[in-house]
Amino acid sequence: MSSTATERRLTALAYICLLMVGINGGWTGPFIPEISRTLRVPIDHAGLIISASAFGYFVALIAAGAVSHRWSAHHLLIVSMVLFALGLFGLALAPILPVLLLGGMIIGLGNGAIDVAANAVIVDLNRDRLASALNYLHVLFGVGALMGPIIVAFALARVIPYWWVFGAGAIGSALVGISLARTPAIEVRVPAESGGGFMTLLARPIIWALFGVLFLYVGGEAGVGAWLFLYLRTAGALGPAIASSGVSVYWLGLIAGRIMGGRIAHRIAAREMTILGSAISALALLGLIAFPRWYAIATIMVFLIGFGYGPIFPNMVAIGAERFPSRVGQMSSIIISGGAFGAIIVPWLMGHAMATATPRISMELAFAVTALMVMLSFAVRRR
Asked: What homologous superfamily does CATH list for 198-377?
């Protein structure tokens, strides 16, 4: 196999890995009621699978950063898909709740390792077009997140039990891992950088700026995604089908934003694109807050919120990879952990506001987070 063919195959496999992460994120929640009935446990206990996965995700981010200087991104991606397959098999075969939660934690380990390794693989193969390649990579996550609920709807309509779906996902993940193992490794040489551990990276202000932007971005994106349906139902007085379609429009906007980010990355620098995108999302949130009952306007605003958010995550990874070319794994594990913290804190704050105050205040909190992201983006400097 030629070097070019190997690079293309490895790129395609990295894209498939992130697609699997998106699919799993999209189908886990809708399957929780069926899991609860099958295992005969309360639904809130079955929902602990999300928390178990989040715990594994945190552990994987730390571990992936620690071993990234010893293992290549290619080998780390192989291990991550093995973990992902084992976790899905665990969910499919779990007879009791503790085994289910163990499977969720293993999936989280694979998920975190994929986030670090897939980004690092694409960076290694696309040093001359970082922002563009990473935007296209993260399009696949959005596509997967859309596919997940569709797969659940198909399975439920045909009375296909969840363990068959998880089992099929596990087999698919295992096949991707085998394909990665059979793909020849590509030697990537980058300039060595002095200093070795996490502490030297943590001493760099640019790392904290990237960490902060991803904290705000992932928090805002996850918060809007989690509470948009209820906001449209209450503040917008929309029916469940229309409100649900609004959530789909949001994710379509995210996909469109990343596709556009990939197409214009050679014209607009990553930092400027991040500032522009977060400003579009902030203004669109203001429009959604002002006109929640005007369906046409609200739909456009929801699309623009996702569209503006779209390129932010891959752009932050691209800036970090440009600044620390020989330490992409360590850098990614640190700044992506900022996003993980944001995903825990901001959606909870928005949900608390939704429950104890008003839906409007919940979305105003999302606007505040996004506006702060605009300001913090100015602190990010290119090399």
From this structure: MFS general substrate transporter like domains (1.20.1250.20)
